[in-house]
Amino acid sequence: MSRTVYCQYLKKEAEGLDFQLYPGELGEKIYQNISKEAWAEWQKKQTMLINEKRLNLMDPKSREFLEEQMKAFLFEGKDVEIEGYTPPSE
């Protein structure tokens, strides 16, 4: 049985994550307020950010940067700025 959450990103009821995918309080907030669809969107953006900025996830500064971007993307409605990336027009 899948869970439904009111997704803060999509601003609607949607299928929730199966389990907490991120540690700590932020992970709990994501689990309670972010849908699978929104998380998948973030994963794509995160991959592009990591590649473009050549982030090293062993580096705490890189992880901190990604976390800030993730919070802004999922909860503040800010899109991720990826230099040289133009989203495909629908």
TrEMBL record:
Pfam family, one: Iron_traffic
GO biological process entries: cellular response to oxidative stress
Segments passing through the bilayer: none
Xref: PANTHER family: FE(2+)-TRAFFICKING PROTEIN-RELATED
Family: Belongs to the Fe(2+)-trafficking protein family.
Role of this protein: Could be a mediator in iron transactions between iron acquisition and iron-requiring processes, such as synthesis and/or repair of Fe-S clusters in biosynthetic enzymes. Necessary to maintain high levels of aconitase under oxidative stress.
Name of the protein described by the UniProt record: Probable Fe(2+)-trafficking protein
Organism, as annotated: Pseudidiomarina insulisalsae
